[in-house]
Each structure stands twice: as structure tokens, then as C-alpha cells.
Specification:
Low-confidence stretches: 1-17
Number of domains: 1
Shape: globular
Largest sheet: 12 strands, antiparallel
Order of helices and strands: HEEHEEEEEEHEEEE
Mean pLDDT: 87
Number of helices: 3
Distance between the termini: 104 Å
Radius of gyration: 26 Å
Helix content: 10-25%
Amino acid sequence: MKSTTVRIMFTVALAICSAGVLQAQDNKARPRIIAFGSDSPERGTTRVGYWNNEKNMGAGQFAIDYGRPVWRKEYDDGGNFDKITKGKVYRLGSNFWTTLDSDMPLTIAGKSIPAGSWYLGLHRSEDGATWSLVFIDPAKAREAHIDASEIERAPIAYKTAMTVEKASESIEKLTIDLIFQKGNLKDVTLRIAWGRMQLSAPIVVPMT
């Protein structure tokens, strides 16, 4: 009887001790900083460049570099897509920031955008009717260590209106194009297509 009692008490004590160890492990503080990375995902680049034949040298250029996320089937339900976009600044692209790099000032949808490098995102109105292209100063984003996934906490330097276009087909991967017509050097169209979403904005290039 005494031996049985000792064994029971020992088992109970062991269980309490084990529970205490597990609780201590559960309560262990998470590391303050963790690291993450990615492989070499597909990225897209679209560019418009100008060449001076008289001087045989470059006359200006601008380009957009971006990650190409795949459209998710759940986004086909408009309600799901609305939840993550309406009234929000929305990430444009995947992985590292989508970046506009221009060595000349541009007028995009009537807004003057200085030459330089800009991080890009999208803003959708609360009612979902209008979209805008937003420009973020990379220096300020770097200073605050803002990841592209945290775009909503990045200060916006400029915002330009975008036109919602009717998509003729669903585009699986995000596609950004800079389109110009031969013979018309100063007018370029920026077009963004992803799933059934298609947006555009006119760009006027200063030509001397």
C-alpha cells in the first residue's frame, strides 16, 4: 500500500513538473527579429528609352521592374477581392518593391512626377469605383525598414488617377506595360493587367 502511494505521488509530481516545463516553453519569448528570404521569382521589366541620333547617345529612359504574382481563383469572387482592396493602399507586384526608375521628369495622369526612383503601389477608393497609382519615396521606406508587404504604413509622396478598363480576358500573372506609338515620342500609356483588373494612365514625356 505504501509503495503504491509513493508511486502515485511520484507520477503526479512528474506530471506537474512536465506541465511546468511545457508551459515555460510555450511562454518563451519569440525572437525579436527573424530573417526571411525568397528564391529567384519571376520578375518583369517594361521600359521606354530614347536615343539621340545626332549625338549618338541616350536621350532619356524610364522603366518599371516588378514581381509577377499569380491571380488567385478566390479573387474571382468580387467580394473577396473587395475585402483586400477597397479603401486601402494595395501592394503592386510581389516580393521586392515594384519600382519606377526614370532619368527624366514625367507627367502621369496630369501629375508631375520628378525624375528618380519611386516605389509603386495602388490605392482603391472606399466605394471601389476608382483606383490610383501611388508613389513612395524609397529613402523614407528604407529609413523605416518598410517591407513591400507593409505598404499601408509607407508615406505617399504622389498619387495619380488611373482609368479602369474593361478586360477582354483574364491575365494569370501581373503584367505591366509601357506602350507607345511610333511617330509619337511624347505620349506613353501605362497599363496594368491582373486577373480581370485592367488599369491605365497616360504618361507625357518631356521632349526637346
